[in-house]
Amino acid sequence: MPTRQSSDASKSKAAVSDVYASMRASILKGEIAPGARINIDAVSRSLGVSQTPVREVLQRLEGDNLVVYSPGRGYSTTPLLDLPALRSLFEFRLLVEPWAARSAAVDRLANPAAALEKELSDIRASLQTGVDARQELVAHDTRFHDTILLSAGNPVVQHAFAQTHCHLHTFRLYPADIDGAITIAEHATVREAIAACQPDRAEEAMAEHIRNSFARFAQAFEGKADLSPLESDGPPRRHIVI
Amino acid sequence: MPTRQSSDASKSKAAVSDVYASMRASILKGEIAPGARINIDAVSRSLGVSQTPVREVLQRLEGDNLVVYSPGRGYSTTPLLDLPALRSLFEFRLLVEPWAARSAAVDRLANPAAALEKELSDIRASLQTGVDARQELVAHDTRFHDTILLSAGNPVVQHAFAQTHCHLHTFRLYPADIDGAITIAEHATVREAIAACQPDRAEEAMAEHIRNSFARFAQAFEGKADLSPLESDGPPRRHIVI
DNA sequence: TTATTCTGGTTCCTACATGATTTTGCGCCG
DNA sequence: CGGCGCAAAATCATGTAGGAACCAGAATAA
């Protein structure tokens, strides 16, 4: 009797949701080894469900860029981001997020300053009691940036950014020893500019934060790569086109 | 005997591929009526396949934003883009594509001027013999913009842009009477700037092209909507929209 | 050493059961 | 007589089980 042993309220409906959470956690924890192939049958039996929900979950994970699909050969986990991929990702963020910060820094009801302030005090409090600071920090970072992007009010940009799952990927290679204080301080700077309704300052603060953030992550690759800064060419290029 | 009658070489493997092409065409042609729910069982029986490949296809179509999924209620086709959604889409393009044009307008092997020139002469020739100009024009537009984006050399930006499927959506509301000559002329301007390796000019030409393109599409909404241009109010707001 | 065949394993699809959701029809109240 | 609400039934999404085709790798023969 292959009954589902996961949640006591094992009615039925939570199947795909449970499987998604489980597989995603497995990949993020590195239990499946980046680049390895995923056996649908093995996973389904190990989780006590059928193959259909597992396949559905795999297709969703493909949208998250956590697995790749080869027709006729099944699914494999994606390898960790290398430095060029990380740079591409942060260049994209540098294209989108300063624009979002500028859009958010206006005197309107959409101004997210209050929500950002709450988020900042929450994370400060949470780090005091500090359990699993790494997870907390990434979660805070996600919420902070998502809030700003949301208040920019462009669903297409928001969706495109969400599809990159940048926080999800950076979580995979987040060094355990990073000090969150710097990140939070930069967040506070961004929030102040937004609260003051100064678009230029907000844009620049966000751009600076992303550049610094990339530099911090790039140090995880130290020794093997060049570490040249994100923007190489001279004149301070406007990311905002008229 | 529920044999598959689609392709004569009905080995088996083409199932999901066939279904995908078929459903996608149905939605784009409007045969399923935007906003209507999709009955998995009906589709599977009508195409002579089982429910599993249909579900797989629906999940892929969800990534294309052609259907939406409600847990427990299945899939529905997405409604046609309304004016605000179209504006959001073109604002995203205005954020990404001028940057890509700038990045492409450099004196490197990645410079796509030659490919763009071939693309332009191809479409000009194709329009002479003109069969189904609408389809040809959208296909050309897709290739032209994709080429520029590709040579910008950022996979993340490229993927994020591809995920918007902007040409796929604009195809759904492409007016039949639009004259492609203007579009092609603007493309030629962009190409010239890229060929001349003038980043500023390329960036501006692309931005101008996208603004004009939006204006042309917005005319499809004439009568029902405000038709305010992308940047409505007085001070140059750097395309921040409410 | 190279080509061919065979076998093990895995993906992919079909068919069916089940539970939730929507719709329809009937009775009741205003 | 018309509108509202509840209940029963049909409908449909979701999950399960199993089988057939297919790819990969190994062993054997030339």
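The domain at 83-221 of chain B is CATH 1.20.120.530 (Four Helix Bundle (Hemerythrin (Met), subunit A)).
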